[in-house]
Amino acid sequence: MIVDGINTGNLDALMPLYEPEAAFATQPASLAHGLSGGREALAGFIAMKGTLDLKVTRVLEASDLALVTGVWSFTGTGPDGEPVKLAAQSALRHDVTPREERLL
Predict the structure, then answer these.
(1) What are the mean pLDDT values of the chain's consecutive 10-residue runs (104 residues total)?
(2) pTM score, two decimals?
(3) First-to-last CA distance in the chain?
(4) Which helix (H) or strand (E) holds 90?
């Protein structure tokens, strides 16, 4: 769902995936906090009109929670028209209760 939201530019589809207290790593040693910070960070990816690729490497489940780790890469175009290539590892705490699926 995250990959589809970013790759199709659908910011509104992404926001319900996140908890209100979510933190989003925008760059090394920098976090965007809350839904407004996450929205701004995700909008930055979408503005680059690129492609996100995510490979899940491990899922650890306990009760209604899961820790999901993976590696991702993103290619797009920066505001200056230059190519942008990003890559990182990710770790997400995923609430898998039947009521909703959200990321922290």
Answers:
(1) 92 90 84 92 93 95 88 96 94 70 54
(2) 0.79
(3) 15
(4) strand 83-95
